[in-house]
Amino acid sequence: MFEVIVLAIALSMDAFAVSIGLGSKGGHRGLGLKSGLFFGSFQALMPFIGYLGGKGVLAWVDAYAHWIAFGLLALIGAKMIYEGLQEGIEENITAITNKMMLLLAIATSIDAMAAGFSLTLLNINAYLACLIIGVTTFAFSWAGVVIGKRSGTWLESKAEIFGGIVLILIGIKMLAV
Length: 177
Fold this sequence. Notes:
By secondary structure, the protein is an all-alpha fold. It contains six helices and no strands. The model has no long low-confidence stretch (mean pLDDT 80).
């Protein structure tokens, strides 16, 4: 279960970073709740989709599954580190609408779908794991908006880099399973 909590924290860093950027723009009073609901819901749903897909192909790739999980997590982690070193998408946001939140939620959770494949290799309840990922992302997204409102964006890129490093380390650990 420890791996799931670490995975949940790492996957939530993307949404956390975006939420910091959103919070730094001001926004309405319920933005933290809105951010948490959008990002948390999608971060819970996408790994489950990845898990189901992984279950479907696991029989075919069982001998290489650990390497595939490592590769996916390493690629996702590297992408997060790269994005953490770049300018955030939040720079171009002028209005925080439901449509924009939906697009951001999808964009930040696509990686979680690939990470969901790694859930097939852990001896855990996938429903519980996805719930933990969603609740963790909700909490980090809400906190990100609050932090962004109070301190600006200085923590934004550091969160993505941290999340990327943790995903790579989880991928390396998957090779030992």
